[in-house]
Amino acid sequence: MLTHFSTFILIIGSLLFGSPFTTTSAFAQEQEDGLLASVRVLTADEQQEALDFILNKTQESGYSAIGLDLETEPAVILMRDSTSVPTSRFAFSFGLNRMLQDLFADAHSRVEVDAILAEATYASLNLCLSWLHGEEPRIINSCETDSAQVGDLVTSMGGRTPADIFAMLQETIPHEQDFFLLALPQPWLVREDFLSYFGLLNDDSASVDLILARDGEQGLKDVSVSIPLALAPTDGIKPIPSFVSFEVQNETSTAVFKLDACIFNAEYMAVLEDFWSTVDANENVDTVVLDLRENRGGDFTVATAFLQYITRDPYTLFDIKQRQSDELCNQIPTLCDPQTVGFLQSLGIDMSNEVMDLPGSAMSIFLSQVAGSPSSLDLFNGTLYVLTSGVTFSSAHLFAAVIKRNNFGTLVGTPTGNTPSFGGNLLQFSVPNTDLSYYLTTSRSELNSTDVNDEDLDAIYPDILVPTTREDILAGRDAQLEYVLEMNTLNTNGTTTSTMPPTSGHSDDDISGAHSTNGGGVLFALYSISMLMIVF
């Protein structure tokens, strides 16, 4: 028989698996000979139905839509006008995202094609393109292909400069600041829908002309190439890497905990406990590195569980403002359960308002009870570093922010992908007539801080800025991790690694044995409240 605790594990598992860049749409597309998947046409009626659906859901449940009449907003009027004639699916989806960016400038609120579907049906360029940090936007290739070498810089793509392309991303991709755009997934820059919408394809719609700056005998030289679009090879099912692992390096007196997704399940708890037990038993280790550079978010409870090995005192978290709606209760019913409502009311929280205010001072205590006590291990009293990047997003961004705000550790890398306070607790909808999922923000997380200048910040900035350079990519060097390791080098040898077996992300395991419980009713309510922390 399932306990209240394990029931909530199952409920949370159904909500938090996936990232801001991976959707679960079940829309099936028919392959049309000789036609790119993204350019198939939507009729005016199909567009109107899809737009009406998005606007209605946003008006009814979106946090940022409170007080707005969306139909009177200029961005909506412009989008409505554009749906009067048939248009391609990619143009419609980019138009929706442009509208959402103009309305909310919220990286969570967006429409997105299913990633697996796009890989199977959308053609792309055989390149590994990403952005380099610097005063000017620069695009670099990081893999060896028939047409490009590692370290090639893109100076022109489809006749557009990197600055031109970045400006188009700023107009069409929902974001809060540019660090998020600099960290967009690599497939996006080479996928047919992006290339088509930005006008980078040749007239035959089957290739893109590029000018690459490549190392030559006398410095960089321009190399012109034309790269064809192609579907990704289908070479069978690829193993899914574990989202959590660790490595202990005795020679540098450092233990590295790598977390690529905020998934709070049995696998995470097992690796976390193994990690801290290993650190506790190893007298050489005086430095811990928490690597959040590839973490796009999930469930914030992973942070609470991790930090209980750092401190057992209450600490500053963040406030949550949650819009209540029927759709919220439909998709996250535990938040509207009578037990949860009664518990919140007992804390003095007014549940009659459209927006529920949940203070961070209470969340700190509540979540520490949910995550449980770290057995009998001593608290870690060494140095903690956190590696961040523009990919560090949502709950991972909050994880890094809480560590920085409470002086638990030092951040190294590049700024995170969110503004300090941002929207979250997403609802997901399948958009009619399309292969799109719509993600809608229903809450706002507001960091607590004594820094009077926080409102002017556009990200959580690292204490030590260490961007990845072209030279790092050419050398295959991990710039941020090597920076930390070089400061902790010892003349000892030995490396211990540990990872759990890869999983599909979902877990039906009951991990209540890893936690302290204070009665089913209280725990039921606590876990319901922790649902508000799932901000993806």
Automatic annotation (TrEMBL):
Pfam families: Peptidase_S41. Residues 492-505 have a biased composition (Low complexity). It comes from the Eukaryota. The keyword Signal applies. Residues 492-512 are annotated as: Disordered. The keyword tRNA processing does not apply. Residues 1-26 form the signal peptide. InterPro entries: ClpP/crotonase-like_dom_sf, Tail-specific_protease. One of its GO terms (molecular function) is serine-type peptidase activity. Gene3D superfamilies: 2-enoyl-CoA Hydratase, Chain A, domain 1. One of its GO terms (biological process) is proteolysis. Residues 266-444 form the Tail specific protease domain. Keywords: Signal. This is ClpP/crotonase. It comes from Fragilariopsis cylindrus CCMP1102.
